[in-house]
Amino acid sequence: MPQPTALPHAPLSGLTRLVAHLGVPTRSFTAPRILNPWFAAEGIDAAVVPLGCGPADFPTFLPQVLRLSNVLGALVTMPHKATAAGLAARLGPMAAVCGACNVVRLSADGAVEGEMFDGAGFVHAAGTGAVAGRTGLVVGAGGVGAAIAAALADAGAARLILSDVDAARARALAARLTAAGWRAEVGPPNAAAAQFAVNATPLGMAAGDPMPFDPAALPPGALVGDVVLGAGRTPLLRAADAAGCATVDGEEMLLAQLPACLAYLGLPVPPPGTLRRPPPPDV
Amino acid sequence: MPQPTALPHAPLSGLTRLVAHLGVPTRSFTAPRILNPWFAAEGIDAAVVPLGCGPADFPTFLPQVLRLSNVLGALVTMPHKATAAGLAARLGPMAAVCGACNVVRLSADGAVEGEMFDGAGFVHAAGTGAVAGRTGLVVGAGGVGAAIAAALADAGAARLILSDVDAARARALAARLTAAGWRAEVGPPNAAAAQFAVNATPLGMAAGDPMPFDPAALPPGALVGDVVLGAGRTPLLRAADAAGCATVDGEEMLLAQLPACLAYLGLPVPPPGTLRRPPPPDV
Q1: Are A248 and A215 in contact (CB under 8 A)?
Q2: Shared domain check, B128 and B92
Q3: What's the gap in Å between the CA of A102 and the closest CA on chain B?
Q4: Structural domain boundaries enclosing B136
Q5: How many domains does chain A contain in total?
Q6: How far apart are CA A100 and CA A96, in angstroms?
């Protein structure tokens, strides 16, 4: 029989344990295309199912989805990460600092609980050794910037410089990190002071965007991360390559966080390096 | 890579159009295991996704599911068929007589609309020629019995005898059919008067159940239908075989209704005989 794509497909029956993937639009969802082939290859009867839920429905829809008899939990993405944290009765330490979560589940007592793994993805992909005891620059203090800053602090970064065009937003994030016992300060996007630097803004999604920072200013051996997904090798990453920096791209961050997300949902955990980047979507 | 089952699997990405399959428990759901392999074989990027929704959530969950950006509609099964009809702003002719529907969709103006295809499945599987102009016995005047009786009347059955241990329920169904312009009467489960007879009760699911009617009493060339699913060849069907009757089993009724359900949801329609019975579940 002809197959519509080269991917092995997720099985789906009444026995399949589902992970709801909530966000809108669903077009660019990547986790189903990474995890479902792995489930199929491993004989794990589970599937990540994209559900394109809009903001008006999300606050009632999320708790109902978690109560479905065959659902293990949910991956939460744009534009619901902050709303999800507000709906959770309990938040993990990263989600508490970020005020956002990207994985939710029902606890044994029926309460919604959530955690934020976006930052862990960057730390895992970079390697703890690349950030512990070092100074880092995080440009963008929104949801993903907060997640990355919190995970960097948790991983032992010595000093974090937070930069945002909205200075108040950067100050608020620094205050939340400081309140959680970590060291963070607000500053300009000056890469010269940093041993690693992360773009946590959308800059690089559109042609002609300015650089969030100049990777050529980083000291030798520094590392550059870029959260921008689906744009291929961004101008920032190409400049980092030219400057001789190690890099972590958005897809690597996503791949690196998925094992922790699966563990949080009670699913088997793939060994590091097992999950594969998906082929480009058939659009 | 090893495959967990012999079935081709449904693709699942953010571009996949979903058909929600709502009911609880999901364990015995059959439609995903029939339709998803066909979608995969045909290269149709669609999937039937079982969602184990309980009765308390269903009235709010169903409209939200229909509003998801990537959902085409829903198949509705136990215990929600009557509730779904109550939630629909518009019902098709079969659903209106039954007070229940098993497929729902959002109309172009955003209203929930539903229809009941359970009866059409029996008529299609039996063949219109086996019922038009003939006298039939339907035992069981609940949801599925009502659906079958309405579809039989619509297909031109000359006379329908409705039988139920709850005589008031049978009378109420006869009254609804009569009000819709069809001919139906209440009577004992006497197969001798009928040219076809259908079991629309759960009798046959449990070992030791009495027969809903005696197929040996039917005239030569008569047809026996049995809605009981998942019990293999029921005692009624084995007795019908022994009496030389043609038969239609529950799985044939399900297979035969699916093309009409897909058309209602705007999906491609498999030619008759294309859909296959699924293998037994891996339990």
Answers
A1: no
A2: no
A3: 17
A4: 119-252
A5: 2
A6: 7
